[in-house]
Structures are given as structure tokens and as C-alpha cells.
From TrEMBL:
Keywords: Repeat, TPR repeat
Pfam families in UniProt: TPR_1, TPR_16, TPR_8
Family annotation (InterPro entries): P-loop_NTPase (IPR027417), TPR-like_helical_dom_sf (IPR011990), TPR_rpt (IPR019734), Ycf3 (IPR050498)
Gene3D superfamilies: Tetratricopeptide repeat domain
Protein name, as recorded: Uncharacterized protein
């Protein structure tokens, strides 16, 4: 690494621009890394098949990683490459991709498709977060990756980041499925739902498509700085890129990663052949002397003292050389004294004060500098001067001090004048508070806005630095609301507390920050432990305390720990007995615990307190349906839709209610005419096709299923439904083709396996067919074990047993199914399956009719 040469004193050529000065210093003073520059430049000139595609810069703070990365970027730009850069300011893959795209755009390389898709993601997330009818706990579930679900899969992947011990997996899976349905029906198409449910998975392929387009024109160079702070989410993503999980990478691509440590060999071993290892250390003695000579520091004793006191750390060598000392006594001590010597050599008092004040904010621009040093008259001149200094670097459009220099500058100011320290930080608090207020957002809406969040973070940082004891309670209260927004937001908040504690030398703040950091280390964070620490030890104000209890109640509920969830909501209600959200939250827990009367009372009270609370109304409707009160459920679903015509969850379930009550014609009309409902949505098309199917209108059902499969060729449920339709129409060859595909896509699902067996028997391949039906029995038993709350599994197993001639067991399973279902639609479903079974060649029609009569005695057939 090198540093800026020249003196701090004013002067120089009047004909040179600031950019000329910076570029000249960067190129002239780059010492000890020439071989790395040559290696990178040579690599760009090689045929792509011979290149290294990943440069891994690593070394301690102050050795010049960022400086080297900037030089490599300059070389890439000279080569004509499109360049994108990110640092630790990103807290997740979507934000990192957006930052790379923005930087590429600065160089004229627009990722047009990605930009549109990312803008859609931000809009959809905002709509979801701002929707008062979003089910409780949904946002937190998304941020933990709990809903990695697409239309092509009918199953829910495991919930991540929750307690290992789950009390009721089936009930938890049921509510997660309700949340998935809410998202699937809130947005108008599958792509938007996937964008919200799995943003990294949805955005990365589009990002790669645009990169490939760029790479057809020029080399693409991507730079990942301060990797030690982003590795927790970027490392797996990068590995997935190289493993082609999201599609092919362009061959004309070079990635540079810079961090404290080398990439983990346990993860990256298989990519050794494409990685160029770039370890950076302090200057060698010869490199240090060469650098000093270029600064006109040549006295033997002065050189020896500088090299000794700096430890040959490039940044400190540069700082100690900046004043061109000619006397060893003028050099000073390592780090702290080096900063003081460095400042002493600047004769202009305003500049000395500016250099110190500029270290107080974590990110710098001209306005922030003016707030820090109260120098409005000269702020442009002083800021332009400050930008030429060796310890200030611009990354992604933001100016920052190097930590090796900033830390001693902060310590110097804190120790020299505590009163001035507090005064300057309070000015910065006021600056950021004013900027935040100027956005005109309430706190509730502000948490949904990234700019508002950024101002709030910096305001809190400076408040903690100014008076840690007074500001800590507010910081802990706001940590609750940060988590309510998302886990990455909470992590940013905690990182800010750690930084403020360190920079202000407040052990109390730093201890709190470190404690919370240990709880939120990566994407598998434990939100329950995070909230517990705040609830039990933070002495939260009532609003934050109640919010924390509600959030923890949601987390306990989502992880199936219903007793703990109940306790949290009851504690929240002790604070506010008339909190609609706490009542509805407790009601949902009661529902999951099958305590329906208690659930109904809570939902009803929540609705009395807030008659516009659509989620509570729809939840009560769902509860009525579970209790068999179908007409009352319909009334509540209708009320929810009248309050919010775009509330797709209610629309879908109301349609389902009509279907399950046997009113197929009403369901079809609803699916086709309901205002605010997208008739082209895949879920809608699927439901409409199933209605045609149950009504025996097979050609129309086939048309609907074809529409879905054209859009979603891997949607196994639609493929299976089409196969069943082909079977009912006697088109066995087409049915087998579809069933082979459905089984390939979802090999754990029993019904496609059973149906293929039935079709094969119908085609005269009885041996193969009955083997399939036997396999379906095994799969159904596994489904019943894994998903005990899904009563249809016992219905299916009964049908499979009947197909194999096990009539007594089939009868017992069917009785068990009918005893659990308690709703007419389940009986209708069983009748439909039994009538299909009657088409199996060789099956006892008398036995099938006995089972049909059994169902009709216990349930209600279709109208």
C-alpha cells in the first residue's frame, strides 16, 4: 500500500485539479505491491480459459487491502472492464446485488432487468410490511428464510432459525402454510410471491442474466471489500454462484474479495485452480525505505525511527512521513502519538480541527463535516482539502476514515476534552434528527424506509457517544422495533451499538452490543433469545416491552412452542388489556392448541376493539370453518373482503368454503368475478380447474391446468391434476406421461404414485401397477407420520388399502378420517376418490359401494 504524498500546507500547481493530485499520488506512491498489480493486469490479458477468476486479498488492518483493491479496479477500468464494488454497508444478498448494480451503472453498465426486478422487490416488501392485514409474524418469518416455497412445490421446507425443540410440528406447519397462502394470494402472480418469499433466489438469476449480457461486450470485474464483515451471508452465495445454482456465470468475469483472513479452505478447496491468493503484510525493510525516499524522507536515523515505530504498517509509515521530518525527535510514537505528530505538522489550525472533527462521523460528506466542526463558511474548501489526505478513502460514493487512523483520532479527542467531545456528537445527533424529520415519516412508516433507518442509526450512534448512560435505554428500545422490521435491520442496529461502545469507551454499551451480536451471528439467528435478553434485562419502556412480548409470542408460535407463546401474549395483555394485536395473537395460539372457544373469544374481542382489523376477522372466519360453522365463516370472510377487496387470502378461502360446502357453481363464479382477484394468478387458475374437475367438466379443467403448466412447467400439483383428468377421460397414455413427471418432481408424494399404479392396471400392466400402489402405501404412511395434522393422508391411505383388497383396514382408516374431518367437503373428497377407485379393473364394486354408503352416512355429499 502507499499513501498520499505531498505536504499538508496549501500550495501546488494552480492548473491541476483535485482528481489529478489524487491520481498522481496514488500512482506514484504505490510501493511494495507492484507484483500484485502486474499479476492482475496480466491475468486480464490472458484468454479466459487460462485466467484466475477469483483474487483473494487478505491481511491485517492497515496493510492496504482497500488501497490495493482500488488500484486493481483502476487497472480493470483501463482494461475496459465494467466494474462493480461493495463493502460492509450491505446486510444481505438483495442489498449487495443492488449496490453492485448501482456501481456498475455509474460506469455506464446498466443491469436493466435486475434493476426493474429489484424495484419490484422493494415495492412488494413495502406493500407487505405496510399492509395491516399481514398475518402476525410474517415479516420475521421471511427474514429468517422460513418460507422458501414456490408454486412448483406443495410442501413447506423446514423453518430456519427457531428453537430445536418443536412442540407441534404439524400445527406450526399449518400456520406457515397459511402465511404462504397469504403471500401467494396477496400478489398477482407467482413471480411476485417468490420475490418476497425467497428474494436472493429470485433476484440472483436475473442479476446473472444481465451480467452475461454485459460480459458479451466487455470483461466484468466485481470487487467485494471488507469481506470479514459480509462473509456470513456472501460466502455461501458466492459458492452457490460458482456451483451454478443460479445459472451459468459469464466466462469473462473476474471477482476480487478482500478481507482480514483468506477464504476458508474447507469451503473453497474445490476452486483452488481458479483462485489467486494475494496475502498482504507490512512493508519489508526495503519497501519501507523506498516509500520514504519517494517522500523525500532520507535521513538514516529518521528512517530507522519511522520504520521501528510504525511496525512498517504502510498507513502509519505514510502518516509519519507526511510532514517530511528531518529530526528523529519529530517522529513520535506508534498510532496514537503518530496521529498527534501528524496533526502538529499542519500549520493551519482550521485544517487540524477539521481533520479531527471529520473522524467523529462514521461516514462523511460536506454537510456532515459542517455539522461536526461548525465551519459552514469554509466547509467546501476544507472538505476538498480533507479528501486529499492519505487516511480518507471513497468507497461506493461515501467518504470514510481508515480505522487505523480514526480510532486514535477519536481517542485523542475523547481524552483531550470530554466536554467538546459531547458537544460535537450532540451537534451530529441534531443533524441526523433534523434530516430524519425532513423525510416526513412517522416512526411506523419510517422503519419501512432505508434512508430513515440510516439517519436513525447515525443519530443513535452519536447519542450513545455523547452520553452512553442516557442514550442506552432508547437504543435498546429501538432494537425491538428494528427486529420487528427484519433481522438484518436488527443486526445493523446491534453493530451500531458495538461501534458506539468501542468508540466512546463505554463498556456498558459495548457489552450490550456484543451480547446481542452473539445472539444474531448469521442467517440462522435466534430471535427468541434476542428478545428474551431485551425483555429480561433491558428495562424496556412499556411500548417496547409490549412489542417485544408480542414479537416473541409470534416467534414461539411459529416454532410450535405454544405454551410459551401463550405466556408472552398474556404478559402483553397485562400491560394493555385492550390491545387488538395481542388479543388476536393469543387467539391464534389458542386456535393452534385446539382451544377453539378461547380463540373465538379473543378474536371477537379484538374485532370489537378494532372493527377494521381484517386479519383478525379473516382469522375468526378460518376458525369458524375449522369448527364447522360454515355459514358464519362465509359471513366473516365476506366482511374481510368488503373491508379490503384486495385481501386475497380471504377471497381464496371464501371460494374454498363454497367449494367445500358443495356449491361448485358459486365457487366458479367467485373465482371468475371477484373484484381485486387476479384471474390469471396460478393459484386462482388451479382452484378454478379443480372446480371444473369436481363438476365433471373435464375439457374445461384440462384447459385450466394446461394454462398453468405452460407458465409453470415444474408445478407438480397442476401436472398431477392434469394426469388425473386424463385418467378420468380415459386418455391413459397422456396420464402416465404426466404422472412420471409429477413423481420425478415430487417423489415423496403418495397420490401420483397411486394414480400411476391405477392407470397401469387399467392399461393391462397389473404387476407394475400394484407395485406402484404398494409404494404409495409406504409413502402415505410416511406422510401421516410427518404431517399428522393433514387428515387427508388417512383418506388417501384408506383408498390405497382398498385398491390392494385390504377392505377391513380401509374401512377403519376411513372411519378415522371421517371422525377427524368434521366438514362436508372432506366427505365429498372421499366420495370422489372412491368413485375413481371403482374404475380400477378387478376391484370389488360391492366393497366400493359399501365404503361409499359409509361416507354418505357420516358426511354430506355434493349438492
Amino acid at each position: 500500500m502507499g499513501a498520499a504524498g505531498g505536504q499538508w500546507a496549501a500550495g501546488g500547481s494552480k492548473d491541476m485539479s483535485l482528481q489529478d493530485i489524487i491520481k498522481r499520488r496514488q500512482q506514484a506512491d504505490f510501493v511494495g505491491r507492484e507484483e500484485r498489480l502486474i499479476e492482475f493486469r496480466t491475468n486480464l490479458g490472458l484468454p479466459v480459459v487460462d485466467r484466475r477468476f477469483l483474487f483473494n486479498i487478505h491481511g491485517d488492518a492497515g496493510v492496504g487491502k482497500t488501497f490495493l483493491m482500488n488500484q486493481l479496479r483502476r487497472i480493470a477500468e483501463q482494461h475496459g472492464a465494467f466494474c462493480g464494488y461493495i463493502d460492509e454497508s450491505s446486510y444481505g444478498v438483495p442489498e449487495a446485488l443492488a449496490s453492485l448494480a448501482a456501481d456498475l451503472a455509474q460506469g455506464g453498465a446498466r443491469l436493466t432487468r435486475f434493476e426493474r426486478r429489484y424495484a419490484a422487490y422493494r415495492r412488494r416488501r413495502h406493500e407487505l410490511d405496510a399492509d395491516p392485514d399481514t398475518p402476525a409474524g410474517l415479516s420475521e418469518t421471511f427474514t429468517k428464510g422460513a418460507l422458501q416455497v414456490g408454486l412448483h412445490s406443495a410442501k413447506m421446507l423446514p423453518i430456519l432459525g427457531v428453537a430445536a425443540e418443536v412442540v407441534d410440528v404439524a400445527a406450526a406447519a399449518e400456520q406457515i402454510d397459511r402465511l404462504r397462502v397469504f403471500v401467494g394470494q396477496k400478489f398477482r402472480n407467482h413471480d411476485d410471491a417468490q420475490l418476497v418469499l425467497s428474494p436472493a433466489e429470485a433476484l440472483t438469476p436475473v442479476f446473472l442474466e444481465d451480467l452475461c449480457t454485459l460480459a458479451k461486450r466487455k470483461t466484468v470485474a466485481l470487487f467485494f471489500d471488507t469481506y470479514e464483515r459480509t462473509e456470513w451471508f456472501l460466502d455461501t452465495w458466492l459458492l452457490d454462484l460458482f456451483a451454478a445454482r443460479y445459472g451459468d456465470l459469464p466466462a469473462d468475469l473476474v471477482i476480487t474479495v478482500a478481507g482480514r483472513s483468506a477464504l476458508d479452505g474447507n469451503h473453497w478447496t474445490s476452486y483452488h485452480s481458479i483462485i489467486a491468493d494475494v496475502p498482504l503484510t507490512s512493508f519489508t525493510d526495503a519497501e519501507g525505505r523506498t516509500f520514504l525516499a519517494r517522500q523525500n524522507v532520507t535521513g538514516d536515523r529518521v528512517v530507522e525511527v519511522i520504520l521501528q515505530l510504525s511496525g512498517r504498517l504502510p498507513l502509519l509509515v505514510a502518516m509519519l512521513a507526511e510532514g517530511r521530518p528531518d529530526n528523529p525527535a519529530d517522529v513520535g510514537d506508534r498510532t496514537g502519538d503518530a496521529v498527534e505528530r501528524f496533526l502538529k505538522w499542519e500549520p493551519d489550525g482550521r485544517r487540524r480541527a477539521t481533520a479531527l472533527a471529520g473522524a467523529l462521523p462514521r461516514r462523511l460528506n460536506e454537510d456532515v463535516l459542517a455539522a461536526a466542526c461548525d465551519a459552514d463558511d469554509d466547509r467546501s474548501e476544507l472538505f476538498e482539502w480533507l479528501r486529499t489526505q492519505p487516511f480518507l478513502a471513497e468507497t461506493a460514493g461515501v467518504w470514510q476514515y481508515h480505522d487505523v487512523v480514526r480510532m486514535p483520532m477519536l481517542r485523542l479527542q475523547r481524552n483531550r476534552s470530554p466536554q467538546r467531545w459531547r458537544k460535537q456528537h450532540r451537534r451530529l445527533v441534531e443533524y441526523y434528527r433534523t434530516e430524519r424529520a425532513a423525510l416526513g415519516l412517522s416512526d411506523d412508516n419510517g422503519w419501512l424506509d432505508t434512508t430513515w433507518q440510516d439517519y436513525h442509526l447515525e443519530e443513535t450512534y452519536h447519542a450513545l457517544c455523547a452520553d452512553s448512560a442516557a442514550a442506552l435505554p432508547d437504543a435498546l428500545n429501538h432494537a425491538v422495533f428494528a427486529l420487528s422490521d427484519s433481522t438484518p435491520t436488527a443486526r445493523r442496529w446491534v453493530d451500531t451499538m458495538v461501534a458506539a461502545g468501542r468508540d466512546s469507551d463505554s463498556r456498558l454499551v459495548q457489552t450490550w452490543g456484543e451480547r446481542l451480536t452473539r445472539i444474531l451471528p448469521d442467517e440462522h439467528s435466534d430471535e427468541i433469545a434476542f428478545l428474551t435478553a431485551l425483555i429480561d434485562y433491558a428495562e424496556l419502556e412499556p411500548a417496547a416491552y409490549e412489542k417485544a412480548l408480542q414479537l416473541r409470542g409470534d416467534e414461539h408460535r411459529l416454532s410450535g412452542q405454544f405454551d410459551q407463546a401463550l405466556a408472552d401474549f398474556e404478559r402483553a395483555l397485562e400491560l394493555d388489556q385492550e390491545s387488538p394485536k395481542a388479543l388476536a395473537g393469543r387467539g391464534e395460539v389458542y386456535r393452534l392448541m385446539n382451544r377453539y372457544d378461547h380463540a373465538l373469544a379473543d378474536f371477537t374481542r379484538a374485532i370489537e376493539l378494532d372493527p377494521q382489523y381484517v386479519w383478525a376477522i379473516a382469522s375468526r372466519a378460518y376458525l369458524h370453518w375449522r369448527m364447522g360453522r360454515h355459514e358464519v365463516a362465509l359471513a366473516d370472510f365476506t366482511r374481510a373482503i368488503n373491508l379490503n377487496p384486495g385481501y386475497h387470502w380471504s377471497i381464496t378461502l371464501r371460494g374454498d368454503m363454497y367449494r367445500r360446502l358443495g356449491r361448485s357453481e358459486r365457487t366458479l363464479a367467485l373465482a371468475q368475478r371477484t373484484g381485486g382477484f387476479d384471474v390469471n394468478d396460478a393459484f386462482t387458475i388451479l382452484g378454478r380447474g379443480e372446480v371444473f374437475w369436481l363438476m365433471g367438466r373435464y375439457e374445461e379443467a384440462l384447459s385450466e391446468f394446461n394454462r398453468i403448466i405452460e407458465r409453470e412447467p415444474n408445478f407438480s400439483r397442476a401436472i398431477s391434476n392434469r394426469a388425473e383428468t386424463y385418467f378420468l377421460m380415459g386418455r391413459y397414455d397422456h396420464a402416465v406421461i404426466d404422472l412420471d413427471r409429477a413423481i420425478e418432481l415430487d417423489p415423496g408424494s403418495s397420490f401420483p404414485q397411486y394414480l400411476r399404479g391405477v392407470v397401469l392396471v387399467a392399461q393391462g400392466h397389473a404387476d407394475r401397477g400394484y407395485l406402484d400402489i404398494q409404494e404409495a402405501v409406504v409413502l402415505a404412511q410416511r406422510e401421516m407420520r410427518d404431517e399428522p395434522a393433514e387428515v387427508l393422508h388417512s383418506c388417501h391411505l384408506a383408498i390405497y388399502r382398498a385398491a390392494l383388497g385390504d377392505w377391513a383396514e380401509a374401512r377403519e382408516l376411513l372411519l378415522d378420517f371421517l371422525g377427524q374431518s368434521q366438514t362436508p367437503w372432506f366427505a365429498t373428497h372421499a366420495l370422489f376418490d372412491l368413485r375413481e377407485l371403482s374404475q380400477l379393473p378387478g376391484v370389488s364394486q360391492q366393497r366400493v359401494q359399501e365404503l361409499i354408503r359409509l361416507v354418505e352416512q357420516h358426511g354430506v355429499a355434493e349438492d
